[in-house]
Amino acid sequence: MKVQMLGTGSAFAKKYYNTNALFYTDSHTIMLDCGITAPLSLHQLGKSFNDIDALLISHIHADHIGGMEEFALQMSFIFRRKPVLYVMDSLVDQLWNSSLKGGLKQEMFNTLDDYFEVRLLSEDVSAKLMPGFHVRPIRTSHIPNKSSYSFLINETFFYSADMKFDPALLEALVQEGCTTIFHDCQFASPGMVHTTLDELMSLPSYVQERIMLMHYDDNKVDYEGQTGFMKFVEQHRLYSF
Ligand SMILES: Nc1ccn([C@@H]2O[C@@H]3COP(=O)(O)O[C@H]3[C@H]2O)c(=O)n1
Ligand SMILES: [Zn+2]
Ligand SMILES: [Zn+2]
């Protein structure tokens, strides 16, 4: 399995694009989140939306779903194929009614199912999304009273998406055999809705060693060499796990 980030920046970063990922199995490509910058990043990789076999969504912020309107429109009117959309049962109604409907509702296209082959996921229920790609969605804390999910992939790779610091979860994941953690990292404190670098630096070395930092601000250069045992994930680089 390989992972390649379409972007590694925070919601407001301009240099590093939105934190969205492509996962490559032997036979399929799965996109995890499709933010505002995802269409341009895909294009820069020489890919199109037609190369994506399934999209998985963590939560409803524009840096994670802002590219979905273009995804849906290109697939319907250019490629004429319905892509698979994996979405949490707690997010599916809001995704359409609060985020996508304004741009996508038109004659003959009245629901999310008219654009995507929608498959629902439930919290803490492991699911096989594609051959060789299993995911356990874990509800994590991000914005008060809004659902947001992190994902444990193939029982060894944890992708935080956006979450507040949860050291007990990270330590439990490592105890259970998780070898790689792609974690959001905000440089300035307090974190409020994200995990800060200072919080991650408080983790024991055996946890830090597994962490790669993403969802960072444009001033990343100021923090290079100051991230303990943790390294930065880089846009478009291929990582195997
Ligand atoms: N209570 C909140 C809510 C949102 N935000 C900022 O808005 C961004 C939305 O995308 P994100 O990646 O979740 O990061 C959020 C914060 O920067 C924030 O700083 N505080
Ligand atoms: Zn975000
Ligand atoms: Zn968010």
From TrEMBL:
Signal peptide: none
Reaction it catalyzes: 3',5'-cyclic CMP + H2O = CMP + H(+); 3',5'-cyclic UMP + H2O = UMP + H(+)
Pfam families assigned: Anti-Pycsar_Apyc1
Domain Metallo-beta-lactamase: 18-215
InterPro entries recorded: Metallo-B-lactamas, RibonucZ/Hydroxyglut_hydro
MF-aspect GO terms: hydrolase activity; metal ion binding
Sequence intervals crossing the membrane: none
Function, in words: Counteracts the endogenous Pycsar antiviral defense system. Phosphodiesterase that enables metal-dependent hydrolysis of host cyclic nucleotide Pycsar defense signals such as cCMP and cUMP.
Protein name stated in the entry: Metallo-beta-lactamase domain-containing protein
Organism: Paenibacillus nasutitermitis
